[in-house]
Amino acid sequence: MRYGPDFLVIAAYFIAIVWVGLSFSRKSRTVSQFSIGDRQIPWWAVLGSILAAEISAATFLGAPGEGYGLRNFTYAQLAIGTLLARVIVSYVFIKPYYDYRVISIYEFLHVRFGVRTKNAASAVFLFTRILASGSRLYIAAVVLVLGYEMLTGAKPTLRQELLIYIGSLVLLTLFTTLYTSLGGIKAVVWTDVIQAAVMFGSLAFAIWMLLRHIPGGWHGALSCLKAPGDLSVFDTGIDATRSWGANFKYILKNEYTLWAAFFASTFITMATHGTDQDMVQRMLTAKNYHRSRLAVVLSGLADIPLVMVFLLVGILLWAFYRFHPDPNLPDKNPYIFAYYILHELPVGVRGLLIAGIFATAMGSLSTALNALATSFIQDWYLPYLNPAADETSQVRALRWSTVVFAIALIVVGSLTALVVLTVKDSRIIPIVLGIFAYTYGPLLGVFLVGMLTRSRGNEAGNLPAMLSGFLAVTFFSGLYCKLPLLFGRAEWTQPHWLPAISFPWWITIGTCVTFGIAVLFRTPASQQDLARRHVASANPPFQS
């Protein structure tokens, strides 16, 4: 019975989440109810859902891992850009989505430009979201792998560890798919609110426990942090002893600088919060665009202290293990927090923290499943596969497509686990962010042309512009250098004059290239007129 209370806490969490999710099954009988909740969800619930969706298990374990490894708050600089981007998204993106009355945001591109642009953008989203969400899904299983070691006293073999990952992926996805496929977006949002509360409570308790067991508390932790840069928040990336060119290369090469915070992070968040159905769909559940704006901006303000808290956990973990050395500490920084939860927290509380990890995984997973299903049905199923589908058939298709996408995410998560297990020194955050960095720049670029102009961009120019943006990122990221590896040969080396460019800048590059090319083309007058008539036909228009 040593771990009995932990299992009871975890079981109670799963039962509560599934019960709340299933309670909305009878309220999701139409496409509008399933996908956007008839736009009747309170703004504060939308706010909680946004936060829960943003903070996946990758962040819950990966961000403390960054704090543990770097022993500073420089990663938190990126939150500056996330706040700036949310203001832009609130006042540039959200109102047009309400005005155009879209369920899938790629319908906006259909009206603004045409069907080919819409199809290209939707396909990019579906492909990228499956990879990104699947890759971060496996992370919640870290705690189960470490739990196996604690229970058996033996480190699992590679095969055993992989099986543990796959088993946990199936379990988490099964529970999440159950309430998501039946309850729709309302189940997603309200379970997100519960999951956010569990997550915040878990973090607060972890900090309290760490400070309690570090001799001298906060002052004791500070005594361990004497190296230059410890606890720093800002890194300008500029050193007076370096030349202008050397400083420029340093800024592009390093992930967490003030320049990346103001520019690169802004573009990243504009892409994830303005052009990704995963995140925007919950914004469209608010009663009107004013309340949606409020939720989005407040989520940005909440992000800054929240990221600082995650990093503080990692820094305190580093100090804790300086005072309490443990030869069995995992060699991967993202595993440290999970190891601490399993080995240092009291019974019952340990179960709450494990539930917090599962909460982050399930929150982001439910969001992805609902968004993938909605985009697929609106952008592909109805236009091409079953145009005559009635309301009942559409909802049935939404539920079955949720199940299919769940299977796809399990496959991607399993493959990601295999890669992480076999590649030494892999880091979670760059893996998750790097996946969509190749494609979301072109996606954001074409959306910005549609949002910021009324007469620029067309079908002939948008697709070549998006392809050019993708190729630019492929070149500047150095991905093309790895192509020879596919043929068993040594990878190419980049030209010496080309600096190594870190992943936060990739979306910026893809966006600028795509926008710069697409804006050169003029929107046909007939398409402009179609867009004006579509907005005017809103009957009644959404009231503010």
- Helix content estimate: over 70%
Distance between the termini: 56 Å
H/E series, N to C? HHHHHHHHHHHHHHHHHHHHHH
What is the percentage of strand-forming residues?
A: under 5%
Integer average pLDDT: 83
Query: How many strands appear in the DSSP assignment?
Result: 0
Give structural notes.
Helix 4 packs across helix 16 (about 350-385). It contains 22 helices and no strands. The protein has helices at about 5-20, 30-35, 45-55, 55-70, 80-100, 105-110, 115-135, 140-150, 160-215, 215-225, 245-255, 260-275, 275-285, 290-325, 335-345, 350-385, 390-420, 430-435, 440-450, 460-475, 505-520, 525-535. The protein has about 550 residues and is mainly alpha-helical.
Could you give the topology of this structure?
Blueprint: H1 4-22, H2 31-36, H3 43-54, H4 57-70, H5 78-99, H6 106-112, H7 115-137, H8 142-152, H9 158-213, H10 217-224, H11 244-253, H12 258-274, H13 277-283, H14 289-323, H15 336-344, H16 349-385, H17 391-422, H18 428-437, H19 440-452, H20 459-477, H21 506-518, H22 525-536
Helix pairs in contact: 1-9, 1-16, 3-9, 3-14, 3-16, 4-14, 4-16, 5-12, 5-14, 6-7, 7-16, 7-17, 7-18, 8-15, 9-14, 9-16, 9-17, 10-14, 12-19, 12-21, 13-16, 16-17, 19-20, 19-21, 20-21
In short:
The protein is 72% helix and 0% strand. The protein is an all-alpha fold.
Features of the shown structure:
single chain; 544 residues; mainly alpha; 22 helices; 0% strand; globular
